[in-house]
Amino acid sequence: MNTNKNIFQSKKENKNILNKIFENSSEISHSSFINFALYDNDFGFYSNKKRMLLADFITSPLTHKSFGLMIAKQIVQVWNYYKNPKYFSIIELGGSSGKLKKEIIAYLKKHNKKIYRSLVYLNIEEANNDSLLDVNFNSKYGCIISNEFFDALPFDRFQKNNKGLKEIFIKKDSDNNLVEVLKDSDKINIFSADFIEKIPENSRIEITNNLKEICNKISSLLDHCVMLTIDYGFEDLNELLINNPYGRIRCFSGHNMDKDILSNIGNKDITCDVNFNFLNHYLEDSGFKKLGFCLQDKFLKNMGISNYFNSIKNPIEKQQIVSLMNPNGLGGFKVYFHQLSSDGFWPQGLN
Ligand SMILES: C[S@@+](CC[C@H](N)C(=O)[O-])C[C@H]1O[C@@H](n2cnc3c(N)ncnc32)[C@H](O)[C@@H]1O
Predict the structure, then answer these.
(1) Span from the CA of 125 to the centroid of ligand 1 (angstroms)
(2) How far apart are CA 56 and CA 96, in angstroms?
(3) Which atom of ligand 1 is nearest to the CA of 153?
(4) 39 lies in a domain?
(5) How many domains is the chain built from?
(6) Which of 40, 121, 142, 315 could be joined to 89 by an S-S link, Cβ 3.0–4.6 Å?
(7) What is the reported pLDDT for 8?
(8) What was the pLDDT predicted at 15?
(9) Banded pLDDT at 5 (limits 50, 70, 90)
(10) Residue 126: CB within 6 Å of ligand 1?
């Protein structure tokens, strides 16, 4: 066992939070810690109903309604591809307070009454106590959509040391200090020897906990579907496995960013770049086929956002749409398409 004092040691954390997190053990995995910090009913960042997400960070649905309108247009193409089924489900993962849902439904109601009447819309949102793995739903045709869902899932952390990979656990000592502990762990079996070799010495990487179970669950919700995933992250190993002593973790609070998950627990979002390499792998294992991906600015252009932009007169709204397209911000997010059962669909958003 190798014990490291954390450079981000926290001394003044709320004792109640620490007591709850470490109630059953003085040492826990990062995913368990993050699960408490984000989703605990009493202390979790996302469970705090008084908190407006806008106070800490901004996402595309909250930036401007055109984001939802472009996704709605994409969904209509999927509905047509499945030959206008009588019942069509849109399943949104982690849709928060339902902003995207509202825009999509408003668009469909106005522009396509037939799909609107066929619609079942499910917003699966942990903060509303409907965690994805517990959802019991199945339907024949539909779309699965998510914006910044996968980056919000609790993840474990690993560090490469002396050519081997160890899991990083968090330990509370007798003075309530939090320290990191590197240990051997079974979870390392998910990495191939080749993958471990490519990780630079002393670098850290993060892997979503339960990703396999999550992908299996997603594939059980619909018999035929197109999945649209929008998030930040990388597929290319050259970008994922760079020399990175702190890994790809980020915390957001009041629009400030830091990398210290052990302080201010419950008051900041904890996230990391999505490892699309692993996500694609587990989605493919559960029956999905990857159709492709592009950046958000390209997706929005392909869906016709330029015409929409030209029709808008309000300069503030114009600026909001520009933010959705900014290649150094939201416009640089990845838009992935996967399809479950049946071939031959090519999304307009990837054209
Ligand atoms: C970064 S926020 C994005 C919210 C929204 N999609 C947006 O773009 O504004 C991530 C959301 O995923 C939800 N979430 C995380 N894990 C979940 C799970 N297992 N099941 C359902 N929702 C989850 C969180 O509660 C949170 O609302």
Answers:
(1) 6
(2) 14
(3) 16
(4) yes
(5) 1
(6) 142
(7) 42
(8) 79
(9) very low
(10) yes
